Amino acid sequence: MGQDRGKYDFYIGLGLAISSSIFIGGSFILKKKGLLRLARKGSMRAGQGGHAYLKEWLWWAGLLSMGAGEAANFAAYAFAPATLVTPLGALSVLVSAVLSSYFLTERLNLHGKLGCLLSILGSTTMVIHAPQEEEISSLEHMTKKLVDPGFFLFATLVIIVALIFIFVVGPRHGQTNILVYITICSVIGALSVSCVKGLGIAIKEAIAGKNVVRSPLAWILLLGLVACVSTQINYLNKALDIFNTSLVTPIYYVFFTTSVLTCSAILFKEWGHMGADDIIGTLSGFFTIIVGIFLLHAFKDVSVSWASLAVSMRKDERAFPAANGMGSHSTYELLHNESTEDMEEREIGLPFDSVSRRNGAMTSSLDH
User: TM segments (predicted)?
Assistant: First the structure.
């Protein structure tokens, strides 16, 4: 029964994670459609300080869609391992890219299509090899995990690194180095996911009838989540404001997911139940998603399609025979000149002399 219950929870969490990506990816499209409609009406745009979008129903639909996606993502951590839920967040980028090509007439080039395919393959691989057993099922168990020496050391290092980057590295290099603010968001994000996981367990216990309001851990996790998310939003906005979004998004995904996977391995011990093949499969799926996200973002402004590749190949095929034809023509002219010189020598010189010269010419030509 316990194993059946664990598989049941696993598939519930998987469904919530996928639906979260669909809602969040769709929310960007709805918001964008609403803003474009306002721009056509001549209203002051949001980037110029206008707030006309508050009267646009499409924008509100996008906001509600994003809220539903975040709620589904929050609930997914209560049922499925963080090793599975966090990397599947990349699907929201994929959904947004695909929907924008249909509803916003934004062109998805060949690199983007390959990136979408790789993201799907990587996500499928992670789903197949992700741990299907949940290690923490109650707040009491969560308390024991939080005071574990391994996680305590990890959390201490994360806080120290974040403080150093915030107060020392950030003021000096934050405006020029893209990794500074992203590192702050990523390492703090590992702690925020831990808080979300704990709160999800608390909600499950509350639904089961247990009194979690009096639990100090529930309030500590809630305050910790608010602090972590506020810090993440602040420094992620700084990174997006200074640097190109096509660079910030894939780098943040890689750093954030790596931090969460590390935290999950230390705190939840989700990797302890996995065999070597599942660990390799999970990491391979993760790296495949990274490559897909990189292709989707890094080359989105490059105009590459199957048609342009076909034209380029035909040009190469035309140039190749032409080069061969020029080479053979030059060789023919060279041999023809040598033959003419040889005939002249045969008419002017003695027989022995002409033979020796011909042999010398043949030898020199062989040497070359």
Answer: 12-30, 57-79, 85-105, 151-171, 178-203, 215-235, 247-267, 279-299
